[in-house]
Write a structure and sequence with these properties.
- The mean pLDDT is 78.
- The protein is built from eight helices and eight strands; from the N terminus they run ββαβααβααααββαββ.
- A hairpin with a 2-residue loop joins strand 5 and strand 6.
- It has helices at residues 29-43, 58-62, 65-70, 82-88, 114-162, 172-179, 186-205, 229-243, and strands at residues 3-9, 12-19, 55-56, 74-75, 209-216, 219-226, 248-255, 258-264.
- By secondary structure, it is α+β, with helices and mostly antiparallel strands.
């Protein structure tokens, strides 16, 4: 329930307002009438010279005596409800073809097709999902590249530990396998990988200075230097435990604080 009012001049609406009130309540009609007048005046309405068009209550008519003499509006004791007035309104035309339109800005009539509006949200959602998928793919690729770089660095570090006298040319892992006597296929490659894994795990627990590494004809030979005989025995025992084979210390040479050795199994 309420009353809707506005000020229209020179084909432009200068202001509009709706007062939410029960118009059948006669006790507050006088205060509502004053508020209607004040609202119109704040929009630029002149009581003395400007006409009133529409439907008003007797209380509002009392506040507009001069205007009502020249342009009398419809005075009703009880104003009709909004939806009833909407049904009674004619459709004003600016011309024979162009309907009158007071919508502007965000409420202006658009010429876009209805089919585009129907597909706008699904297309926007699909684009958002595609952008999210692309972002996750880029992040995942970056993480994989970081891991690959870290693994390559680990392989190169293992290469320098195993073959300190050689430099990496192209592929550190392939070059390490070639130096160890491995081939590119079959069980030889698998055995070489297993033996390198055993040596690497032992080296992590008890590192030594590597001088020779040879894996050939089902035999592994390691030569290097350690700081004591007890360290050498620990390395031998660890290799035997991991390889499940008999590990022999072929020869040793004590030189000051270093022990040169050769191990085979």
């Amino acid at each position: 329930e309420g009353v809707f009012l506005g000020f229209y001049q020179h084909n432009v609406w200068a202001g509009m307002r709706r007062l939410n009130t029960i118009m059948t309540n006669t006790a507050c009609q006088q205060s509502i009438a004053k508020e209607v007048l004040w609202s119109l005046q704040s929009m630029g309405f002149d009581v003395e010279t400007m006409p009133v068009i529409g439907r008003i209550t007797p209380e509002i008519a009392e506040l507009l005596p001069q205007t009502l003499e020249t342009q009398p509006p419809k005075i009703e004791q009880v104003l009709s409800q909004r939806h009833m007035l909407n049904l009674m309104l004619p459709k004003p035309l600016i011309s024979d073809k162009q309907p009158f339109n007071i919508r502007h800005g965000a409420w202006a009539i658009r010429n876009t097709s209805s089919s585009f509006k129907a597909w706008y949200r699904p297309a926007l959602l699909a684009a958002s999902v595609g952008f999210l998928w692309l972002s996750l793919t880029v992040i995942n690729n970056y993480q994989l590249e970081s891991k690959l770089t870290a693994k390559n660095e680990e392989i190169i570090a293992a290469f320098h530990r195993g073959l300190p006298e050689q430099t990496v040319i192209l592929d550190a892992l392939a070059q390490l396998r070639q130096a160890a006597g491995g081939s590119a296929n079959g069980s030889v490659q698998q055995r070489t990988t297993e033996q390198l894994d055993i040596i690497s795990k032992t080296f992590e627990k008890k590192p030594w200075q590597m001088q020779e590494l040879n894996i050939q004809d089902d035999q592994v030979v390691i030569a290097g230097k350690v700081n004591s005989l007890s360290t050498l025995n620990t390395i031998r025992d660890e290799l035997a435990n991991l390889s499940k084979a008999e590990v022999q210390v072929a020869d040793t040479d004590l030189n000051g604080d270093e022990v040169s050795f050769r191990i085979r199994w």
